[in-house]
Design brief:
The chain has 398 residues and is of the alpha/beta class. It contains 14 helices and 12 strands.
């Protein structure tokens, strides 16, 4: 084992920040009421939801009434895609609503699009370039009279590519098409303003930024002509579930008050040290990339140098089976990933890496290292030391 375990899989999930745990405990143990109850316990919980909604909305330049609490990114993505397309079908039964996505979306968008296509909706899947970028011109060319929604990932979870979201959103609005982005990996790592970036729907999951698992939100743009206390989200989305009036009649279920409060606290922490943490992670990221590419033969970077998440490193180690390398690292206490955690048990090559032009062999030789709040220089140097050792060992075996 390494002297201390080293966690380099922050894009899969993050540890919950101690301050987040502390405030969540208050709502597990003391202010535990149902936010729908009218007694003091319930009112305290309801006030906590309101305060959390306000903090989250302010962070992305939205209005509180535009924040819909969910169980996380996958539910938010499903609510956005299914919600918009089914609602359009309800409003215009004779049409076949059209969805535009790209080929390296997260499975929560990719598989939802596949489901919608099986249900009779029309889906266009746009290719990306060799760095993982979506071409805004291709988005515009894909728009049809029946296009109901464009959904382009903000930042790719495997290779860290940050897409030109503002430009794509501007194109969508020019054609009066709603624009959704899966911002699960980008949120708190890059500045996001839903208004200036022309975003209509945005998905977020708390466990990617030191909040709890099982909670997230969907931002849904409100009708500008609506009353300030009226949510118009149900005008544009059909619910996934039925049974209650929570979350503006879109998400029936007793609200996860501890999780929502914890998510808001995690956002507050991220907001307070955003610039310093971004700069620190970018420096460590570039150090790791530079040393791997300079010192280890037959390596190449997957994804771009510029417009990349500050914590993401994805490397192709030619001649080495990445799964074997992951196991060797795990045996010495270093956690990394050969793909996205949501499909880590699959043995087939990454759809993302194939989508940017890597061969099956190159995709199977690629590994992701994702850095985070508790990653330091010593961790990176320790990783490099073991990489040198294991690359030599595994290359000989092969």
């Amino acid at each position: 084992m390494a002297r201390k375990p080293i966690y380099l899989d922050y894009n899969a999930t993050t540890p919950v920040h101690p301050e987040v745990v502390k405030i969540m405990n208050q709502y597990f143990l003391n202010d535990f009421g149902n936010a729908g109850s009218v007694h003091e316990f319930g009112l305290n919980a309801h006030n906590a939801l309101d305060n959390s909604r306000n903090k989250i909305a302010e962070f992305i330049g939205a209005k509180p009434i535009e924040i819909i609490f969910t169980s996380g990114g996958s539910e938010s993505n499903n609510m956005a895609l299914q919600g918009v397309l089914y609602k359009q079908k309800e409003l215009n039964p004779k049409t076949r609503p059209h969805l535009v996505i790209d080929t390296i979306e997260h499975p929560a968008v990719w598989e939802t699009a596949n489901f919608l296509e099986r249900e009779g909706f029309e889906v266009t899947r746009l290719p990306v370039d060799h760095k993982g970028f979506v071409n805004p011109q291709a988005v515009e060319e894909a728009i049809k009279p029946n296009t109901a929604l464009i959904s382009i990932i903000y930042a790719n979870n495997e290779i860290g590519t940050i897409n030109p979201i503002e430009e794509i959103g501007e194109i969508a609005h020019k054609h009066n098409v709603w624009f959704h982005t899966d911002a699960v990996q980008a949120f708190t790592k890059v500045p996001i303003n839903v208004k200036s970036e022309n975003i209509d729907l945005l998905s977020v999951s708390a466990h990617k930024f030191y909040g709890p698992k099982g909670v997230g939100f969907l931002y849904v743009r409100n009708d500008p002509d609506a009353h300030k206390n009226e949510s118009t989200a149900s005008h544009y989305l059909r619910p996934l579930m039925y049974g209650g009036s929570q979350e503006f009649n879109l998400r029936p279920a007793t609200e996860n008050v501890p999780g929502i409060v914890g998510m808001a606290k995690a956002i507050e922490i991220a907001k307070n040290d955003f610039l310093n943490e971004n700069k620190r992670l970018t420096k460590l990221r570039d150090y790791l990339i530079d040393h791997i590419l300079d010192e280890i033969p037959n390596t190449k970077l997957n994804g771009p140098w510029k417009n990349r998440l500050p914590n993401n490193v994805n490397i192709c180690f030619d001649g080495v089976f990445a799964y074997d390398l992951m196991i060797e690292l795990d045996n010495v206490g270093i956690a990394a990933s050969v793909g996205a955690a949501c499909h880590a048990e699959e043995t087939k090559p990454s759809r993302v890496l194939l989508g940017i032009g890597r061969s099956n062999t190159e995709a199977e030789s690629s590994m992701r290292f994702s850095l985070g709040r508790w990653t330091n220089q010593e961790n990176i140097d320790s990783l490099l030391e073991f990489l040198h050792k294991f690359i030599v060992k595994l290359s000989k075996i092969k």
